[in-house]
Amino acid sequence: MNSFFPPHFRQRAGSVRPADWKLSGFSLVEVTLAMGIIAFALVAVLGLVPPGLSTFRKAVTTSIGTQIVQQVVSDIRQTDFDSLSTQPAWRYFDDQGQEYASVQTTGTGRVIYHVNVQITKPVTLPGGNTSNLARVNIEIVNNPGNKSLTRDAQGNVQEDTGKGIFVSRYAVFIAKNQ
Q1: What is the pLDDT along the chain (178 residues), one digit of tens a residue?
Q2: H/E stretch holding 166
Q3: 3-state class of 92 per DSSP?
Q4: 169 near 139, Cβ under 8 Å?
Q5: Same-domain pairing of 33 and 60
Q6: Which residues of 6-33 are buried (b: 16+ CB within 10 A; e: fewer)?
Q7: Are 132 and 175 in contact (CB under 8 A)?
Q8: Residue in 176, 80, 177 with CA at minimum distance from that of residue 134
Q9: DSSP classification of residue 48
């Protein structure tokens, strides 16, 4: 029967007094203090999760936004300068920066970014003729719910944080190759 108990629980040979047993462990007070310290640290760490997730979401949105701007500018640079349209054009992208022909709200290719591209040419700069220069305004609307967009007096999409609509604006100059 003694073989089922660990050595520190076994009685010494010839002794029956409980004082001769070797007992080890933590008291209830020690366990309670340890749990209190761990709970305090856990609450502090869990308090950092929401700001961390918000920062992560902003970083992802910024990264995808710059990727979209690079793709739009690359497409414009590959287009013949004289055939650039000055009409506003909407383009649609998903959460990975993949372009879609239209707004899709079902399936895996859900559009999140609505991109408005406006080209102004020629651009007038002080001191000379600039007929070989175009200004490209790129407006990226982070609209994951595909909610209706409202515009201000200048025609820009208005940000609505309550609906989850965030807007980033970029301006790029494109020059005609001679």
Answers
A1: 556 656 655 555 555 555 555 567 889 999 999 999 999 999 999 999 999 998 998 898 889 999 999 999 998 888 888 888 877 788 888 888 888 877 765 555 588 888 989 888 878 778 776 778 888 999 998 887 777 787 787 777 877 777 778 888 899 988 877 6
A2: strand 166-175
A3: strand
A4: yes
A5: no
A6: eeeeeeeeeeeeeeeeeeeeeeeeeeee
A7: yes
A8: 176
A9: T
Residue 52 and residue 37 share a domain:
no
User: Residues 143-152: contacts with CB within 8 Å, 24+ apart?
Assistant: 143/112, 143/113, 143/114, 144/95, 144/110, 144/112, 146/103, 146/105, 146/111, 149/114
Q: Could you tell me if 109 and 120 are in contact, meaning their C-beta atoms sit under 8 angstroms apart? A: no
- 23/59 same-domain check: no
Domain count, the chain: 2
Q: Among all chains, which residue has been given the structure tokens 């502090």?
A: 44
- Separation of first and last alpha carbons in the chain: 98
